[in-house]
Amino acid sequence: MKKILGIFTNPWFIGILGFLAVVALIWYLGPLISVAGQSPLGSDLGRIITIMTVGSGLVLYQLVTYIQTLRSNRNMLADLAGQAGAAGGGQAAAAADDQKIQAQRKKEEEAASGEEIATLKQGLDEALVVLKKAKLGGQAGRRQNLYQLPWYIIIGPPGSGKTTALINSGLRFPLGAGKVRGVGGTRNCDWWFTDEAVLLDTAGRYTTQDSHEEVDRAAWRGFLDLLKKHRKRRPINGAFVAISLADLLRQSDEERTAQAIAIKQRVQELHEHFGIRFPIYVLFTKVDLIAGFIEFFSDLGQEERAQVWGATFPMDEPSDPQGVVEHVAAEFELLERRLNDRMVQRLQEERDPQRRDLIYTFPQQFGALKLLADQFLKEVFRPSRYEERVLLRGMYFTSGTQEGTPIDRLMSALTSTFGLHRQSLGAFSGKGRSYFITRLLRDVVFPEAEIAGTNLRVERWRAWIQRGAYLAALLITVIAAALWLTSYARNEMYVRAVEKQRLEVVKQIQALSPDQTDPSAALPLLNAARAIPGSYGERDAGAPWLMGFGLYQGDKLGGEAKAIYQRLLLQALLPRIILRLEERLRQTTDNPGALYDTLKIYLMMDNQERFDAKAFKAWQEQDWQANLPRSITREQREQLSAHLDALLAQAPLQLPIALDNTLIQNTRALLNQVPLSQRIYERIKQNQRTAGAPPDIGLTVAAGPDTPRVFDRKSGQPLNVGIPGLYTYNGYYQFFSMKAPSWWDNWPMKAGFWERRRRFPAA
Which one, 201, 289, 467, 609, has least CB within 10 Å? Predict the structure, then answer.
């Protein structure tokens, strides 16, 4: 059952399940998402590409995380190896400039045997090889690297039983105790690699720093630097303070105070160096040296010995000036009361009188420690406004093995008071057993691994990055919202403007007379249609960026507005042009050249191959220039020209009305009465100025600008008006003779052209 539950709680399983959920959302809900009328996930290919993109991003993230984890783990192992290489050879962190420390380190190096150093190095190398392949923290198939496990540091005076407690803790050491112990050197640090945590058993001299103060302090700080280097956010998850009850009982008040101050300094250094607040667990070790302990608990089996004996304090509240250390005395009384409750049963079970005496006095022996332990812990952990406030989580009593002679404080007090002879208790002999360690670590300490804070400096840096990311996201959101709101407002105004112009166009259409031939009558309608926002007049403007962001309506409304304008050109302007051409065909019967040009323009509108936009525009503008009323302003003429350009851009033109075949036949019949040569001559004469004929030759040009002072024309005409350039020498040879062949385009006359050629061969 536990394995099955482990599978469902495995991060990989949860990640795959989450990915499949995202895939389902993309596949089934993706087609429902629409942006600006477009559905990017509407096609199977679009959804497949999106799913592959999301999957690739997740795989890349996991790969980068895995590589970073391996790199951190490898760097940590390399530093461990480097530290072991220096094991037994002194502390590399000692100050190089201090000659006294250098001499001390050299003395230690000479004292250490080469064989011991080689053994330590060989053992570490073997341990590192196994560590690289070890499967630590392997619950439900999860593999954790070295630095990912929770790390705990153990401090305490020399001989406080730290290592003994770990050896008998009941934890699983994948590398075996022989390979792990002494990894950092017995005078430095023991690294204990378990399935559930990494335990750092520091040398007792690191705590007291009473042997070689400068060397110990430098080595201690170098050790802390190593932890902080590879675990910047959370160098440790907690700390154990191991205190030997035997030492507390034997020490004088001055010695206990000095030891408490040393432990307090180490705890403060951990806080200051790491910059985090972490839980601290006080372990009172060697509790078996209290007289009666072995006899009192001798009935416990293995499972019962694994339970926790001690007190877990409530979480420390910064508002409490006394701190949780004030609970020590009360918790001691509760533990003593529990021992008294159990004592009756143990007395009934025990038959040996001497052992019964020890069992009977054990609760009193334990209670006698209350004042001593309370004073000691308050000395170490009482809050102060001048120091970092520590997070004391509890005090616990353990026994790793049973060695030495028990201490009977009651008998010691009686003998010293009444001068009685003291009978010494015998030293324990037999196989030692661990008491009250295993479940303390597994059930109390390790589950609280996340209580520890993180490095404030690193967290501030990360917090600023997060704040920056949040601020950037907020700014992006605000800017995007502002842009979307602006775009929405502008598009709404645009829609209203289009609707307003549409109503104006409808109004102009209703006011337009269908039989008018004056193009200026259609000018207000065409101007209104062209002025619709997004219409033909803004065809090259593009979408304003403040109207974009998926909300732009110009592509829809603007396209329709262009289509409306172009239809109006065909339905309102072009019919007037056709009617005007027909009117000219009926009016210019006395001018064969002009009549021919008009017929040509009239016919080319229905002939895609012959249509000449430039000629069409030139004739139309010439006609407007000559025949439009003088009330038509220059601006209106320019507007008509712009509408004409828009009309010609639609070529070939779709005529809204059919050409008048009767008029065409009558015009051709009229033109056929005039010789071809005469028609060509009339056309050249009529279009000489626009076709590039030489300028007119007047008397002022030939005789100079002062000629009017001497001569005067009988007709009263000015002297600068003379002979048309067409009738000059240059006019004939450089214009007429060269241009005449190009005017033989008799296609408007169709078959009649060849008939006229036979009738007038000289032409």
Answer: 609
